[in-house]
Design goal:
9% helix; two-stranded antiparallel sheet; mainly beta; Ubiquitin-like (UB roll); 80 residues; 7 strands; globular
Length: 80
C-alpha cells in the first residue's frame, strides 16, 4: 500500500501534507504563507468552529489528522 499523505484545510483550502507530525512553521510554509513570522496560525475544532480556534506556535509540533481545519490571519503572535 502506498501512503499518499494526508489533507488538511487552511483558510478553507485543501493542503496535502506528507507527514502527520509537523510544526506550526512548516504548516504555514506548506500552505503558501512563506513569511511565517507575519501570520497567526489557529487550530480549529471543525469546519464550523465559531470559537476562533487555538493559537499554534511556530515551534509547536502538531499531530494532524486527515481533514483537520486551520485558520491563518495576519499578525505576529505565532512566531515570536
Amino acid at each position: 500500500m502506498v501512503h499518499v499523505g494526508i489533507h488538511v484545510f487552511v483558510n478553507n483550502r485543501k493542503v496535502r501534507l506528507k507527514n502527520k507530525r509537523i510544526t506550526g512553521y512548516e504548516l504555514l510554509r506548506q500552505s503558501g504563507f512563506s513569511e511565517a513570522e507575519h501570520w497567526n496560525l489557529y487550530r480549529l475544532n471543525s469546519e464550523n468552529d465559531l470559537s476562533g480556534g487555538r493559537l499554534v506556535g511556530c515551534d509547536e509540533v502538531l499531530e494532524v489528522r486527515d481533514g483537520d481545519w486551520f485558520r491563518v490571519t495576519e499578525g505576529h503572535q505565532s512566531c515570536r
